[in-house]
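Example noted here:
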Amino acid sequence: MNSRGFLLLVIFLPVLSMETLHGQFKTKYPDVPRIDVHTHVAADVQGIANYLALRTNMLERHDIDFALWINLGDRNNPLVDPIIVEQASEGRMLCSIADYAAHDGLDHDPDSLQHYLDAGFVGYKIWSGPWYRRLEEQSEGHPYIDDLAHEPTFAEMERIGMVGASVHIADPNGPWGNRGDWLADPVEYWKEITAWTRVLEKHPDLVVVMAHGNWLLCQDAQIDYLRYLLTTFPNLNIDLAATFQYFHLVQTENLRAFMIEWADRILYATDIGKWTSQEQTTERMEQYLRTFQILETDKQIAGGFFGGPTIPGLNLPKEVLEKIYFKNAARLYPRVKEQLIHLGYELD
């Protein structure tokens, strides 16, 4: 080979490796089913069909068995018919009721919550995100999640055992010098986190899965605060939706230790919504595969989740992955364990 040919080989081999890394990935754990507890497809039948096609592709090409998704609706369609969704998904998608305007007061009357449970919904998705994402103009005095108007709802959820399904509080706040475009103001960030802490103090028996790790996975000190919350509130859990692209902001050893230490309280999730095109199908496949590589391998995973910096793999033990992927969801959400058994999965 001449020197020019050798040079081309050196230049292009790394590019080829990066492009084919995700496509070649096969899980080491084909016997471990996966549940994504944070998705947004509402009642879009074609969108649901796309999830099922993705499941088939994952199983055939990557040995990854998607068992279930929890459908949190979307802002335009927050309340869907769970029977229609379950039929369209061949039993692989369960629904939560949802409220995407919590700053206007919670949508669902406390007296209606038992009815929703009886109808087959598995939880209550509450989006109490930052005020500036709800209002066109900045405003003082906006209500936080601990507003007294919300108290009757939280009390009834606590009483009847309705799970707070992927409750969204705040937005990501990174370390100084890397605040990002979401919530750059740490004072406002901690006001929102503290407001949620006050809700937990008032309702210690409220079972909650916090969306996005409660957005406490973007700094090492935040992870320590999350350790404090999980220690203090035994009914608090977190999902990992859309957190993967921030893992480079913390020490990998710290994050891995946290995942192992609190494996009983962490649930797999993505925040993926509906999609329509073949190009988007490829993108969703890549997103899912990157999350599994981050959790299961010790590789350097290019692209994070939504794209971005390289993320070191956590190489979590199988027993930890089993809890994160499906066991915690089966324990926390009504109907999930029964649905897994109905679909033919053998559970311990």
Observations:
- Residues 1-20 have pLDDT under 50 and may be disordered.
- The chain has one domain: 28-342.
